[in-house]
Amino acid sequence: MTSTLTISRLTKRFRGVEALSDVSLTLAPGQRVALLGHNGAGKSTMMKIILGLIPHDAGEVTVCGTAPGSAAARAQVAYLPENVAFHPALTGEEQIRHYLRLRGEPALKAPGLLERVGLAGAGRRRIGTYSKGMRQRVGLAQALMGRPRLLVLDEPTSGLDPVSRRDFYALLDEFATAGTTILLSSHVLTEVEARTDHILILSRGRAVAEGTLNELRRRAALPIGLVVTPVEGQTDALAAALPDARRADDGTLHLTCTQDQKLALLAQVTAMGAQLADLEVIPPSLEDIYSHFSQRDGQ
Ligand SMILES: Nc1ncnc2c1ncn2[C@@H]1O[C@H](COP(=O)(O)OP(=O)(O)OP(=O)(O)O)[C@@H](O)[C@H]1O
């Protein structure tokens, strides 16, 4: 299967600053990929190179098999910037019709595009009356013209409330299922954790970690948490049987272990059967993993 995006040993310098050093990444159709990193890590620079907006100094980049910024690449890549601005006096439908005309496509497609992003009912309202989430959807409708194979989104959910975020990601999932590759940057790790298949962490222009969440979890080898809730009246007995456990104010017992120790510890705890009301396993979150790799890099 042809990769949607291949980046090999990409390097970009701005005068004295090395914004990207030796970064590689290959994305397949339908993959949902998060680009993470501190402010100034190089995320936007990487996106601009993929979009063909700025040249790179070394390495190779191909977008759908062609050079970034070429007519063939531009026809297959769409971009949604962090803050999309539309004319507030236009309705959603007028705005989309305008963009369709600019692309030389029939304006008749506007209602269908708005329906795809869940704005069918609001298409005749002025954009000035839209919420931020609705404006992002107009941006997405614009980005989806021409059925892109690669969708590049720069912090697409910043400023959206939790429900709008969830809806936005559900929409992205639909596009990914249909084969569109999604590359997005975000500082909101909790949403990325649940909604992407692959993660690239940049730090000071270098890729410090790349893989699925599970792969990064294994590589980081961070402790796994276990929360044991004893049946009423059994706390002392369980605490005595688990001397390494920390006792919390609510009576639960907290343990940590390595991945290798996990199954043995679970077997030990579940063997306590009737004394046990509940048992929760807490794997390291993406936030823990992100901190681990970033701190290792001195961030
Ligand atoms: N046009 C430019 N001229 C000079 N330096 C630049 C230019 N664009 C980016 N840089 C530098 O390159 C580095 C990477 O910047 P970039 O905007 O890619 O970071 P980012 O990860 O997108 O950050 P943020 O999360 O704040 O958006 C930074 O040190 C930045 O100052």
UniProtKB/TrEMBL annotation:
Domain of life: Bacteria
Domain ABC transporter: 5-229
CDD domains reported in the protein's UniProt record: ABC_DR_subfamily_A
Pfam families per the UniProt record, alphabetical: ABC_tran
Keyword tags: ATP-binding, Nucleotide-binding, Transport
Any one GO MF annotation of this record: ATP hydrolysis activity
Keyword Translocase belongs to the record: no
Entries under SUPFAM superfamilies matching the protein: P-loop containing nucleoside triphosphate hydrolases
Similarity-based family: Belongs to the ABC transporter superfamily.
PANTHER family: ABC TRANSPORTER RELATED, ABC TRANSPORTER, ATP-BINDING PROTEIN
Name recorded for this polypeptide: Cu-processing system ATP-binding protein
